[in-house]
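Hi there, hope your week has been kind to you so far. No rush at all, and the record is pasted right below.
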Amino acid sequence: MADQDLFEDAVVAMYKARGRGLVHFARGLLKAEGIPDSRVSAEDIVQDAIVITLVNSQKYPVSNPGSYASRVIVNLVRDEARRKGVADPLHDPRGPAAEHRKVLWVSQVEEDVDGRLDAEKVLREMSPQQRRLILLAKGVGFSHS
């Protein structure tokens, strides 16, 4: 666990030293792909890259967090470029997030306190990485992969 804490400290130090440069790098890549800020901002790409670097460092040895984050930024921009012609998944009425944007009538709400308490108990028992993955999958709508 101490190694992970040291790595997290290294990522924080790298971000403090190179954060603006990473944002500039991401902005240039987005501009080269013709992706406007209204679709995804360079800051969001960099923040996602930092999270991915931290999560993946628990699975794979990452010797240089700055280089790894830069590579992740390139991959995230490439993925976004592939989706350039696709409707924004958060606003696509047929997308998986659309289910959460339907009108909810008060009569449809059932208070499931027991279920919520059970879920909170299970989440507390999970590792931070597992909780993060559940949040990204269920809260944000990312795939499990």
Q: What stands out?
A: The chain has a mean pLDDT of 77. The two ends are 24 Å apart (CA to CA). Residues 55 and 132 are 9 Å apart (CA to CA).
